[in-house]
Write a structure and sequence with these properties.
alpha/beta; Collagenase (Catalytic Domain); five-stranded mixed β-sheet; 17% strand; globular
Length: 151
């Protein structure tokens, strides 16, 4: 939260560390995750400042971004990986596109989750875009970044 308080919520398969005041629909993102994996996911919601530091440290890109994904080595009993989402991007993009912060957050969560599952829109032949479109339709969401920019 804004006062520096960090809340942690542990669901069956998503370990959420929300370092912001952004409210998320945990049951909705859990239902999406349940359709794709039975592995645990770490989800961190943070600010542009912190995501910029993470982006610089792990990707050598010194700027904030909307979502980062860090897949873990696939071994029995290990989590699928970590997703880091910037609250600042969620708020700005939701206002810009005229949809809810919840929808924007969910789109970024899906995008990050697909990266954890091995999808990569930068090198694939449209498989990630197709899977995002399927999930957007199934969960009645607005178009995501990858769908907006590719089609």
């Amino acid at each position: 939260m804004a006062d520096g308080f960090t809340s942690a919520i542990i669901l069956r398969m998503i370990d959420i560390d929300n370092k912001t005041s952004l409210t998320i629909n945990t049951s909705f993102i859990q239902s999406i995750a349940d359709t794709l994996t039975d592995k645990e996911i770490e989800l961190i919601i943070t600010t542009n400042n912190e995501i910029q530091q993470i982006n610089k440290e792990y990707r050598n890109i010194d700027k904030p971004t909307d979502v980062l994904s860090f897949p873990y080595k696939d071994m029995p009993m290990t989590p699928l990986g970590s997703i880091v989402i910037s609250q600042d991007f969620v708020v700005t993009k939701a206002q810009e596109l005229g949809h809810s912060q919840e929808n924007e957050f969910t789109l970024l969560f899906i995008h990050g989750l697909l990266h954890l599952l091995g999808y990569d829109h930068e090198i694939d032949s449209g498989q990630m875009r197709e899977e995002e479109e399927r999930l957007i339709y199934e969960f009645k969401l607005p178009k995501s970044l990858i769908v907006r920019t590719q089609g």
